[in-house]
Amino acid sequence: MKIIAETSRLILRDIELHDAIDLLEMDLDERVTKYTGQNPIGTIQEANDVVQFILNQYAKNGVGRWAVIEKQNGDFLGWTGLKFHTEMENNHIDFYDLGYRFKFKHWNKGYATEASLACLKIGFEQLKLQEIIAMVHPNNLASMSVAEKCGFKFIETFSSENSEWNWLRKINS
Questions:
Q1: What is the pLDDT of residue 162?
Q2: Taking the complete model, does pTM exceed 0.85, yes or no?
Q3: Quick one: pLDDT at residue 161?
Q4: Number of domain units in the chain
Q5: Range of the domain at 88
Q6: Angle of helix 44-61 relative to helix 20-27, nearest 10 degrees?
Q7: Per-residue pLDDT for the chain (173 aa), expressed as one digit of tens each?
Q8: Which of 33, 43, 97, 157 lies at a 20 to 30 A Cα distance from 136?
Q9: In DSSP terms, which residues pair with 165 in a beta bridge?
């Protein structure tokens, strides 16, 4: 198990093959995937494919989405992490974005903010990034709140893949 970061309540570690079942469980909940703009994972094979995609990101880019584990009981809560984008998005290319997704039963406990702040610390202090982007659906008020608590500033709304997205930025200070 490769631990990426720890907070008072959480462990952030690399996604592992056995996490596929938790990813599937999380994505089968429509409340969790409502504002993702992606088709949810629907089978264990699709979940395994997502795990392999993330493992490839680690190898290629040195970062990716990480499992968020509750220290107290070892539960998989969801994922967070930095993703390096090499394809054009909102007229930008080669940028890092912060993302997070948690099982519904773990919402409203501060986990997303706590895990996101740990990711930002990694991005700015270890990777020496100058900026990190967040892309949040405008109707996802909870996710917007997390981004704002982490210091992201709204830049603009843009269209991508038949949906609107808020483009937020946090600059290394």
A1: 76
A2: yes
A3: 74
A4: 1
A5: 3-171
A6: 120
A7: 899 999 999 999 999 999 999 999 999 999 999 999 888 899 999 999 999 999 999 999 999 999 999 999 999 999 999 999 998 888 899 999 999 999 999 999 999 999 999 999 999 999 999 999 999 999 999 999 999 999 999 999 999 877 899 999 999 98
A8: 43
A9: 158
Distance CA(92)–CA(94), nearest Å, equals: 7
Residue with tokens 């596929």: 20
Query: Both tokens of residue 169?
Result: 């930025």
- Which amino acid is residue 1, in one-letter code? M
Length of the chain: 173
For residue 87, the domain's CATH number is: 3.40.630.30
Listed in sequence order, the DSSP H helices in 34-110 are 44-61
How far is CA 67 from each of CA 11, 58, 164, rounded to the nearest angstrom?
Answer: 8, 13, 27
Q: Are 52 and 104 within 8 A, CB to CB?
A: no
End-to-end CA distance of the chain, in Å? 32
What is the structure's pLDDT at 1? 80
Structure tokens at 112: 């997303």
DSSP letter assigned to residue 35: T
Q: Which residues contact 95 (CB under 8 A, 6 or more apart)?
A: 84, 85, 89, 131, 133
Burial of 123 (0-12, 13-18, 19+ CB in 10 A): buried
Longest dimension (CA), the chain: 43
